[in-house]
Amino acid sequence: MYVLNLVFIFVIINSLRAAPVSECDVVPITQWSGSASKRNAELNKPVHLVIVQHTVTQDCYTDTDCERIANGIRAYQMKYLEYDDIGQSFLIGGNGKVYEGAGWRVGAHTKGYNNKSISISFIGDFRDKVPTPHALQSAQDFLNCAVYKNHLNMNYHLVGHQQLSATLSPGASLQNLIENWSHWLNDVSQL
Q: What is the pLDDT of residue 23?
């Protein structure tokens, strides 16, 4: 009986740990990849910084294609970059779905900012075009939900990856677009 109670408590704790991810219509990493994240260090919430990126991969418009690309990113980062797991916090497909990467745990997306920010990485290359309307709406909905659930500070700042690192990410077209979003921060010198 004692062992059964311990198993029951373990199941409850693990389901509660995963609850914040699914609260905002995020596809859990276990669902799209078949295995749990190996990242364990939780971010301090509410998070104050969101970093927008792109994956510089093919675009995806179907669940199958988005999951295939996300799995490819995860495999590449773990095998060739020797990361513990996928570095991006959340990925957003052209199908309008948000996929959990590192989630609300410390990821590996922006050197010097991983322990105090989340990244939202749009699947595709957005140097010369913007993500689909579905992807953009999903990003806004996710951020609003994250604020409502107190995972993200209501006065959070949003920046493009290129504002913090020597990179072209999130691509010129996407960077120009996010500069019109309400939480965008131009001067990153105080971060």
A: 84
**Residue 20, number of CB atoms within 10 A of its CB:** 18
Structural domain contains residue 190: no
Residue 67 lies in a domain: yes
Rounded distance between C-alpha atoms, residue 124 and residue 22, angstroms: 23
Single-letter code of the amino acid located at 13 = I
**Residue 177 neighbours by CB under 8 Å, 6+ apart:** 130, 136
Residue 116 and residue 87 in contact, taking contact as beta carbons nearer than 8 Å: no
For the chain, how many structural domains are there in total? 1
The pLDDT score that the predictor gives to residue 190 is 85
Say whether 44 sits in a helix, a strand or coil: coil
According to the model, what pLDDT value does residue 51 have? 98
Does 47 fall in a domain?
Answer: yes
Q: Check: CB of residue 65 under 8 Å from CB of residue 91.
A: no
Low-confidence residues of the chain, pLDDT below 70?
1-22
Answering whether pTM is above 0.70, one says yes
User: 122, 52 in Cβ contact below 8 A?
Assistant: yes
Structural domain contains residue 100 = yes
